[in-house]
Specification:
This protein is mainly α. The protein has one domain. Helices cover 79% and strands 0% of the residues. It has 3 helices and no strands. Helix 1 runs antiparallel to helix 2. It starts with a helix and ends in a 6-residue tail after the last helix. The N terminus is likely disordered.
Length: 105
């Protein structure tokens, strides 16, 4: 009976992780949609009100960097930004703590 409970917990954990990943992806697409809509409006405002002085590229550029890094993290393009790396690093730090080799103290 203990084995059945373990399988259920593993399935629950898998479900939780999958749900969390879907939420992260939805968050990224929400950020991307906002980025596109707001910057389209800013470009229109800039070109309509002062076409001789272009400033729309500043929010486009900085917010764009944020959107790119958000996407890289959500889709785990760089392992350093992903959950697997975080878990490995947490385990590594916990092992160092157990061994008494923690240099933070």
């Amino acid at each position: 009976m203990g084995v059945i409970m373990e399988v259920n917990l593993n399935e629950e954990d898998k479900y939780y992780l999958a749900k969390k990943k879907v939420e992260n992806i939805k968050g990224f697409y929400g950020n991307l949609t906002s980025f596109l809509l707001v910057n389209a409006i800013l470009i229109f405002i800039n070109l309509y009100t002062s076409p001789d002085h272009l400033w729309f590229y500043w929010p486009l550029m900085w917010w764009g960097f944020g959107v790119v890094f958000h996407g890289l993290k959500v889709f785990e393009v760089f392992p350093v930004l992903g959950k697997d790396w975080e878990e490995r690093k947490i385990k590594e730090l916990m092992e160092k703590e157990k061994e008494g080799k923690n240099k933070w103290q």
